[in-house]
Amino acid sequence: MEGLQSEGDLGTVHAPQSLWKDIRPDPPDAAQKPGTAAVVPGLPKVPDLRLRGVNPVSVVRADVTSATQQDSGTGRLVDPRAVQRIALCTQAADGGPDCPVRPAVFHDLTGNGREELITALDLDGRLSELRVYTVQDDGRIARILSRRAVLEGVEVAAEHLAVREPTSNPAYFAVSDYVWDPKAGIMNLSQLTLDDCASLTGVPLSPDARRCTR
Fold first, then answer.
1. I need a surface site. Which of 75, 166, 169, 211 has the fewest CB within 10 A?
2. How many of the other CB atoms lie within 10 Å of CB of 169?
3. Cβ(148)–Cβ(42) below 8 Å
4. pTM above the 0.70 mark?
5. Integer Cα distance of 39 and 139 in angstroms
6. Secondary structure of 122-136 in HEC code, one letter for each residue
7. Which of 97, 112, 95 is CA-nearest to residue 55?
8. How far apart are CA 102 and CA 56, in angstroms?
9. pLDDT digits (tens, 9 = 90+) for 177-194
10. Which strands make up the sheet holding 127-135, listed edge to edge?
């Protein structure tokens, strides 16, 4: 017989049991919220409001220095290793051959016609600090996304930025989709999904990962 068929007695359905329901985490410190917008101190204003003329390594260095001072090395805002890693960068435009700051990508994520600066500081061979910066109307540079992750893939499309990360199940990757939130002034998480491929683009893959063909 076609259509729906009974699979027999599936057993008793139980409601989920809450664990440790009387224990709640403390609220975050107002000054230590990863992902919140923050003007990067110690940087000159950008008079023409164009980030392409700014040294990306200098922006990341100023951001890491400020965040490290704010979180006192706790790692809530930036990995404690970031200061040592950024010290490998020289004053050259690209930071030099040993600089762990990735080449900057410029893309309009806020929809105002001005490009944002997207980069990442690689902490080791696996973990990275992803950063997105914008220039405000007064010329100040502000961080609008801060994310520590295993960057299996990072993609931009229109005003979306997607971050692909491995999960504990090697068959699936977590995809975090960020979009500009004008009220909050940051790139906010809009969707979190699971996918069965590491990347849809030309990003190099790890040896055991595969690329989607769709």
1. 169
2. 10
3. no
4. yes
5. 10
6. ECCCCEEEEEEEEEC
7. 95
8. 9
9. 999 999 999 999 999 999
10. 38-39, 141-150, 127-135, 116-122, 105-107
